Amino acid sequence: MVFLVTVLSVWTVMQLYVLSRFWNLPPAPSPAWRTGLVLAAAAGWVGFPFAMWLSRAMGRAIAPLEIAATTWIGVLFLLLVCLLAADLVTGFGWLATGWWRQARAAVVATAGVLSLAALVQGLRAPEVREHVVNVGGLRQEYDGLRIVQLSDLHVGPFLKTPWLEERIAQVEALGPDLVLVTGDLVDQDAALAEPVVPPFRRLRPRLGVWGVTGNHEYYTGFERSLGVFEAAGIRLLRDASVEIAPGLVLAGVDDLSARRQFGIDGRPVNRALAGRPPGTTIFMSHSPWEVARAAELGVDLMLSGHTHAGQIWPFIYLVRLAYPYASGRYDVNGMTVIVSRGTGFWGPPMRLFRRAEITAITLRRR
Description:
Order of helices and strands: HHHHEEHEHEHHEEEHHEHEHEEE
Shape: elongated
Number of domains: 2
Strand content: 15-25%
CATH class of the largest domain: Alpha Beta
C-alpha cells in the first residue's frame, strides 16, 4: 500500500507540473485551451491505472489502450525533464520574462523529438554485448565456456511469440553452453505470458537453461509465474545452488527487491551460497543488491538485471540512488558483476540511449 500510494503521488505531481507549464504557454491562453489541458491531464492521469485494471478482465483485447497509456508515461517523463531544464535556465520564468514562452515551446518540441527517438530505439532488436571474464581457478575444460544472459524480457501483452522467437534465434546464433534468465520473464499478467514462452524450449545448451525470479513474478501472481518458467523449460534456482558440471556451480535467489517490499527476509544470499559444492561459482540475483556479500562468499561472477539502465535517459541517475551497480560491468573485491540493461522493456515501449541487450559472456582461465 505504501508503494502504491508513493507511485500515485509521484504520478500526480508529474501530471500537475507539466499541466502548469502548458497553462500559460500561448501568449493569450483561451478558455478552450485550458479546458482542453485539464481534460487531457485527467485522461493522462487515469489512463495507465485504468488500462492496467481493464487488462485483467479483457487481456490482449485492451492492448492498444495499454500501449497508448504506457507510451504517455515515457512522453510525460521527457516533458517533465525538458520543462524542468527550461525552468532552471530561466529561473522559473523570473529571470527571462521576455523569452520564457519561447524556451518552454522549444523544450516541448525537444521532448517530442526525444520521444520519437525513444520509441524507435525501444522497438529495435536488442544488441549483443560481449564480455570476457577471467576467472581464477577455472578448470581447463571450461576455458572458453559461453554463457548467454537474458533479463527483463517482460513478455505478455506487448512482446509476444514472434518477438520471442527472434530473441531465441539471436541466442542460438551465439552458440551458448549455458543460458541464464535473470528474472522478470513476465510482465503484468502471467496468464498472458504463459502461451508466449514455449519457443524457449528450442534452446538446447549443453549445461541447460536456468533462471531466477524477478519482482514482476511476485506482482503477477507468484505461483502462476512459476508456471511460466516451467512452460518455458527454465529450471529455477530459488535461494539454492547446484553443481551443473564438475567444478562449476550455479546459484540463484528469488528477487531481493520484491522480498523487501513484501517483508520476506530469510538471508537468501547466505542460504543460496553457504554449503555449496566447491568450484567456480556463477550467482544470479535479479536485483543487483548484496553485491559485497556475494563477493565475500566467494562468488566469481554475479549476473543481475532489474534496472533497465534507467530505460529512458536521464532516469538512470535516479536509479543509481537505489542501485549503485545500475548497469554494465563492475569489479567488486575480485568478483565480476554484470548488470544487464534488459532484453525487453517495461511500461512504455521506449528506450533513450539505453538500448536493450543480450549479454554474451566468455569465461577464461586467469
